[in-house]
Amino acid sequence: DPALRDIADQAGAAVTSYAIDHPADLSASAIAYENHGVSFRFECEGHAYDVKLEVPGTHNVSNALAALSVAHIMGVDLGRATQALANFRGIGRRLEVVGTQKGITVIDDFAHNPDKIAASLKTLKAFDGRLIVIFQPHGFGPLRLMGKEMVEVFAKYFDHNDQLLMPEVFYAGGTVDRSVTSKDMITWASEAGVQAQWFETRADILPYLKETAQSGDRIIVMGARDDSLTEFAKDILAQA
Q1: Exposure of 185 by Cβ count < 10 A (0-12 exposed, 13-18 middle, 19+ buried)?
Q2: Rounded to an integer, what distance in angstroms lies between the CA atom of residue 123 and that of residue 90?
Q3: What is the pLDDT of residues 79-121, one digit of tens each?
Q4: Could you say which of 64, 117, 167, 212 would form a disulfide bridge with 111 (CB–CB 3.0 to 4.6 Å)?
């Protein structure tokens, strides 16, 4: 990261670098993606190590390299560190698989801004299967500031079969500018060629999914702040 390099240079700090397919102290290569994980090889000081993660996505390869870099700095044997990473099952609501019923997989995900949504969609689109994303914005302010950018992300990664379903914004209280709502984002998404629908409440989405979801689909409940989203994901799975 160029900005971090500038900071390190200004501070005169020792630097341990990591990268994917670029020269670095720890550099990942031979990345192989799976539905619920990813494997790769990295080299450090002339030794090669194979890593298998139970969490998916390129972003988790970077996360693993960051953790391994810290382990190396602390003098931890990288072979042992690699074995430990293989036992890591991720953290809640980060592309967390709730379950699969009748070939329909329900996934709970914390993504709520353009970068995180892009990382999740990039991981999901590495594999076949229609995506039905239920995205609940986590505030009117973030939607007003980032809504069009989020639409650009959905338009970039969605194909013609994928769908974006949105209830109204999660409102946590207080005085807030409500000039931009979920309906606006649905309008922008439709104009960008995304299959997108607005629902007055989350409950209204359930019968739609019951009628339209098919084997092979992945239903992703996406959003932040609202702790009840996980229970909603479980409700979707229960009716599949």
Answers
A1: buried
A2: 15
A3: 999 999 999 988 889 999 999 999 999 999 999 999 999 999 9
A4: 117
AA identity, residue 148: K
Nearest residue to 97 via CA among 239, 240, 219: 219
β-bridge partners, 164: 133, 196
Specify the pTM. 0.81
Please state whether beta strands 96-101 and 104-109 pair in parallel, antiparallel, or not at all (unpaired): antiparallel
Sheet holding 195-198, edge to edge: 96-101, 104-109, 218-223, 131-136, 163-166, 195-198
**Alpha helix segments (H runs only) across the chain:** 2-11, 58-73, 78-86, 114-124, 140-157, 182-191, 205-212, 229-239
Give residues with Cβ within 8 angstroms of 25, minimum separation 6: 16, 17, 18, 44, 69, 72
Q: How far is CA 161 from CA 25, 110, 128, 198, in A?
A: 42, 23, 11, 17
Of 135, 212, 137, nearest in space to 169 by CA: 137
